Amino acid sequence: MSLNLTQLIEQGVAGKRVLVRSDLNVPLEGTTITDDGRIRASVPTIKKLADAGAKVVVVAHLGRPKGEPDPAYSLAPVATRLGELLGAEVAFATDTVGDSATSVVGGLADGQVALLENVRFNAGETSKEDIERANFANELAALADAFVSDGFGVVHRKQASVYDVAKLLPSAEGDLVSTEIDVLKRLTETPERPYVVVLGGSKVSDKLGVIDNLLGKAEKLLIGGGMVFTFLKAQGYEVGESLLEEDQILTVLGYLERAEEIGVEILLPTDVVVADSFGDEESARVVPANAIPAESLGLDIGPESAAAYAAALEGAKTVFWNGPMGVFEQPAFAEGTRAVAQALTTIDGLSVVGGGDSAAAIRQLGFSDDQFGHISTGGGASLEYLEGKTLPGVAVLDEVTPIGGLG
Fold this sequence. Notes:
single chain, alpha/beta, seven-stranded parallel beta sheet, six-stranded parallel beta sheet, elongated, Phosphoglycerate_kinase_sf, Phosphoglycerate_kinase_CS, ATP-binding, EC 2.7.2.3, glycolysis
């Protein structure tokens, strides 16, 4: 059983250097943060440690640099925003384990916070070679006396700052990770019923494991987004130029048959918003789902389907939603996603927005986080948990956490 944050703090963190792995992978336009949701979600754990007198050393990644410094992926703008949210300046190290990191961490007073530069600027972070990751983890661990895993969006990755460093220091689960895991357990082990799952996004292949694992747990599955066209094709319908995964048609057919056998309702759209080309809002029009023109492509569920999906969510006590219903970034293709989001705000029970594009969509469409029961910070991690997979960054805390290691 892993330590939680409260238990670690009770051991006494005042004056101790605590390395916190946060998920600060936010979208940027130049140096402007366009959605600070992940930073805001990381603040409570960092603040709790700082208030307890710890010297907090935050490590995180941004984007997918190639294992070397790249100014486009610098965490400098994040350090500024994190400081604003904490109400105190955050010291920023211009490297991860080099001279700047050593100097910045060494200069921290009790209760102060530092952010190291993008951890993925070091190739050891994501290396497939155990020894390379271990070497980098050793350098990170040398900067701290304890480790807190609070980056839920990366706990499905076996990476140095997520997995390997936990083996080297007294380690604990941060409040964000604890909350995320508790919510996922409610979705998979003890869901209050009726239980409805809404799945969208571009590819059905990304959601196969979730469909397979939740098909027997939920009463209804509502399907939208680009993945819906593989389902429609499986039913023999023309899908035109819409996104299609031909190699998944037989799998999808199997799910449809299995759902019918066990009495689970899979809802597919009856109408679709199509266009002549991707993002061509001027050509947007509504057609029946079984009559998509051969030269068109579907970019959203239609208004009839949006109303039906909203109705299907009425009375649900548990809802998990992952993936937008259409290309929500453009108004002509956003109404399906808006209808699902609006329906979730009225749920008298647990409504979970499964991170990634779904979280971005609700914010872009003008909804506030507190209108939903829980907004996950980790789409990929949530999906892997719901597939029944082990999350390495969580499992390692159970395996190796030293109790009483701070002394």
